[in-house]
Structure formats: C-alpha cells, structure tokens
Amino acid sequence: MDLIAQLEAEQIAELGKEIPDFKAGDTIRVGYKVTEGTRSRVQNYEGVCISRKNGDGIAGSFTVRKISFGEGVERVFPLYSTNIESITVVRRGKVRRAKLYYLRSRRGKSARIAEVSNYKPKKTGAEA
User: Record's Gene3D superfamilies (predicted)?
Assistant: First the structure.
C-alpha cells in the first residue's frame, strides 16, 4: 500500500464512522446536524442518491436529490463529514449507470427507479 493510501486509511479509522454500502439509485436518509443559534439538532434529508464522487476515500462525497414542495432540491454531502450523524439506506435502486443526472429533467412516473429485490451486500477486505 502506498503512503498516501495508508495515511488516508489511518484518518478514516480515526474518525470511526460506519458508512453503509450504497450507490447511485439508492434512496437514502441522511441525518445531518443543523445548528440554529446555540441549539443543535439532527435533521433528516431523504432522497435518491444521484452520484458518488471520489469513492470510499476521505475526500468522497455524494449527491442526494429530493422533491420538496414540487421543486427538485439537491444537496452534496461529504462522506466523512463530522456533521453527518447517520446514513441509512431506505431502498435499493436498480440502475445501469453511475451518475443519474438525467433525473433532473424527469418528472412524475418517468423519474421513478425500480427497486432491487435480490440485493447481496458487497464484501469488504476484512470479510473476504
């Protein structure tokens, strides 16, 4: 393992976050810490993951799209942000591409994503 990957792995282990296995097309719920004045609370943001960038590394991020009051809203979350309380996979989507930017121009039934019925979790290095 080269030096950069080793340092990145150490930083990820130090954070101690458990990131679920999700990809573009999955509907996910992100518990995001919101600070209002002096108080802090967790606000859930649920929508379809339309892209993942920079893989599982420390610089990784993902974009979640939801429809709020008839208007499409997208938000980019850093994968290992300290403001993310939790990431939960609500349902698995069956898609054939990695970036679902075409959903931006779709409305209604054409924007639906089929659900995966035979999902098998991906094996990580520790399990294999």
Answer: 2.30.30.790
Q: Residue 8: CA atoms inside 13 Å, Cβ hemisphere, count?
A: 13
Token reading at 106: 């779709």
CB-based contact 31:84 (threshold 8 Å): yes
Selection from 75, 68, 112 nearest residue 94 by Cα = 112
121: closest CA among 48, 52, 20? 20
Number of other residues whose CB lies within 10 A of the CB of residue 92: 20
- Residue 11: how many CA atoms within 13 Å on its side-chain side? 14
CATH topology of domain 16-100: SH3 type barrels. (2.30.30)
- How many other C-beta atoms lie within 10 A of the C-beta of residue 47? 20
pLDDT (tens digit, 0 to 9) for every residue of the chain, 128 residues total?
689 889 988 888 888 888 899 999 999 999 999 999 999 999 999 999 999 998 888 889 999 999 999 899 999 999 999 999 999 999 999 999 999 999 999 888 998 899 988 888 777 665 55
